[in-house]
Each structure stands twice: as structure tokens, then as C-alpha cells.
Amino acid sequence: MKLAFGADHAGFELKNHLADFARGLGHEVLDLGTHSSESVDYPDFAEAVARAVLDGRADLGVVLCSNGVGISITANKVPGIRCALCHTSWGAARARQHVDANVLALGAWEIGRGVAEDILRAFLANEFEGGRHERRVAKLRDVERRGIAAEASRP
Ligand SMILES: O=C(CO)[C@H](O)[C@H](O)COP(=O)(O)O
Hints:
isomerase; EC 5.3.1.6; 6 helices; alpha/beta; RpiB_LacA_LacB; 51% helix
């Protein structure tokens, strides 16, 4: 698979580690930064990864900040993105199986490298199950569409 990675300064080191880990699993990596530990703003990297997923440069995205919260919230502001902030491999598997999550978010200062690898492996190894989850993801998309429409009609 083609994977887009993005992180702020807090997620920089774990992002690099996971990018290498993903390459080792045979995936192609698009590293959208950040490329140093200098302080940066997580929304810039969340949006870059989201755009890469939506325009097909990547199949899935991985984003990291200190707790994964800011970068996951930002990614989820981009219509079409379903970003899952995961702390366990079980949660990551469910995020793919049930929610068809297309971006994984991790809290780089909350989990160690081993747990992060397990979470990423589970995220990549699982697929959307469809069935009853199709209906729910369709409703999720409806909520998104109504939000865009409401925003557009705001004076
Ligand atoms: O986790 C984050 C947002 O959810 C960011 O990594 C965090 O806010 C960055 O903070 P600082 O500029 O103090 O390093």
C-alpha cells in the first residue's frame, strides 16, 4: 500500500520510526513532514496527509502529534476523511473494519514504539467489513454533507 505520514514536532521521531517500520512491511511511504524537531503547527501536516489520501497519492494516512488529538481533529475537518485516534491494536482493527477509517492518528508521547507498531500493523492488516457498517458510514457521510451545506448557507 501507499501510506502518507505526517506529524508535528512532537510526533516527528515516532513518525520516522513508523515510516521505516512500514517500509519494512513492504509499503510505499510518502513522508509529508515535519522533517525536524523544530516547533511547527499540526494542522499543516494533518491537511497535507488528508489531501494525499483524498487525491489518491496514498491509500491510507498516518498522523501524529503529542496526544494525537489536535492532528486527528484537524484531519477530520477535511470532508472525506475518517481519522481514528487509536491507543490499542484492537481499536485500530475496529477502526478499519467498522468505520472504514482512512487515516490513523497516534499520540506520540502517550505510547511507546512497540505499541505504535502493533497499532499500525493492525490498522494496515484489516479492511472495511461493510454490511451493517455501510449504513452507519453512509449516515456519517450525511452528517458531513449537512455540515458543509449549513456552513455554505451561513450569512
Ligand atoms: O498534541 C498536540 C495537539 O493535540 C501538539 O503536539 C501539541 O499541542 C504541541 O504543543 P507544544 O507546542 O507545546 O509542543
